[in-house]
Amino acid sequence: MKKPSVIIDTALTLAALFFLGCIVMGYFTRNTGSILCTAAVFSLTVTFFTGRLTEKRHMPQKKKRKLDDLMNKFVFSPHDYAYRFTLDALTDKCAVKEENGLILAGGTAFCVRLTGEKVSTAVLAERYAAATQLRAKRLVILSAYGAEQDALETAKLLSTPTAEIWDFCKVYAFFVYLKHPPTETLRLKPTRKKKFGAVFSIALRRENARRYLFSAIVTLLFARFLPYSVFYVVIAAISLVLAILCRLRIAERLSSKHSA
User: Fold this and answer.
1) Strand 102-105 and strand 108-113: pairing?
2) Where are the beta strands (DSSP E) in the chain?
3) pLDDT tens, 12-41?
4) How would you classify the pairing of strands 97-99 and 102-105?
């Protein structure tokens, strides 16, 4: 169920777009039916696609933040924490055996490397040798940030046993499959933004959308009765654009790309 704030913002967006459509169409025709129909289609279309785009943009971002917080708990904890968590998850699913730093489950040897570094070719070679000695059919290295390019290419060429290097996205999906999803998180403090970036981010916050929408509606009402109405329409259009940018969380997307 959607939050009341989202419903209110959607209703205000619809109203502001409808008023804008009516006033703009009023410059081209005096037919009331044409003005109302065109304004209704315009407002419904823009509101619908804005809402869909907002949900589409927001969900992957929310999921990524959640995965990052879960991953940080493994990365910034002692190695034993990640190893024990993986061991418990596998133990609940099947019989396991521990040898030479590997967890053997069936014919698969799991190597836990949930650290702050990508898996290198040297690590792959050392763990692959250990898996071969244990006669495993498959080596799976669980990592936080995946592997270096040469290590990935090398892993694809290995056959007896085969080798795979998983990033945390695959690791999390694996824990969920084992019905043992991690719940402990560690959220890192966000970096300080530059002055201009901070002002930009504050101006385009999600909660500011309602203010821009109110401003657009009031300005459009004034445009109907005061001279030089075109200037009021332009101001209202700018307010609407800012409101839509707030709803699309443009500031959050740009800041996340910059930090990445």
Assistant:
1) antiparallel
2) 97-99, 102-105, 108-113, 138-143, 162-166
3) 777 877 877 787 787 788 888 888 888 888
4) antiparallel
